[in-house]
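Note to self: keep these together.
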Amino acid sequence: MATHVHGEPGKVAVIGLGSMGFGMAESLLRAGFAVAGCDVTEQARQRLQAAGGSSGALPREVAQDAPVVVSVVVNAAQTEQVLFGTGGAIESMQQGAVFISSATMSPADAERLAARAKEKGVFFLDAPISGGAKRAASGELTIMASGEPEAFEKSEAVLSALAQKVYRLGDKAGVGASVKMINQLLAGVHIAVACEAITLASKIGLDLATVYDVITASAGNSWMFENRMPHVLDGDYSPLSSVEIFVKDLGIIQDMARSERYPAPIAAAALQMYLAAAGAGMGKDDDSSVARIYAQLSGATLPEHKS
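Structure:
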């Protein structure tokens, strides 16, 4: 149960030290915070210690005396586990502490978790993120946040250290999640169509490096084309963001659209390509692996895959 403790000034707990979470921890250390990190892997915990932070194996351990806890896990189920599961952060969080949830989830899940946190006397900030690992490490993320005004006040310095832009979208959890899902609709479609275009370019015999140069200087460019297509050109599908992320996120989009009786055919078509990639055994590979599915379907040749 949460206790009435003021906590260590300047202490922040970061739960989940993957490519995004570790970069966020680095940004907090650079801003002068004492960072205690938690991750399922010992390697990630040791990496944080080497960077100047401390670590623990359980969320409860690192959340102790932390006025702000930042959760950087993948989905609602993982968020629920790190907050309310055995050894979860809620077991040691103080009354009035802030739990910043950065996972992408449905608005309904964000509302439900916020209500459970409030019952325990903990603020829940629904604060999904965008910008990729590089911007996480440089403290230049975009944060789409909603929650009670007091939660924003208490975590203002932490949010400033993490983000170039913090959008305060409302006083209730769920709004941040909703805006993030609109972003994910666009991001998922943009990656899929970029893969469709680059593989077609190969099929008709164009030089892919030249196509990349031309498109990134033309109106057809997108942030995702520019960011992801080098993976295809290099034949490197090491996961910076995996296929399964968009299986999840575009799946949430379809659920939301269906409940609103809203058609989302372009997002649905993109989802089918991510499902095809996951079904072909590429679920844990980079999301640009959709290009490999187009190549398999069409007989197009892409740069050799570096295993």
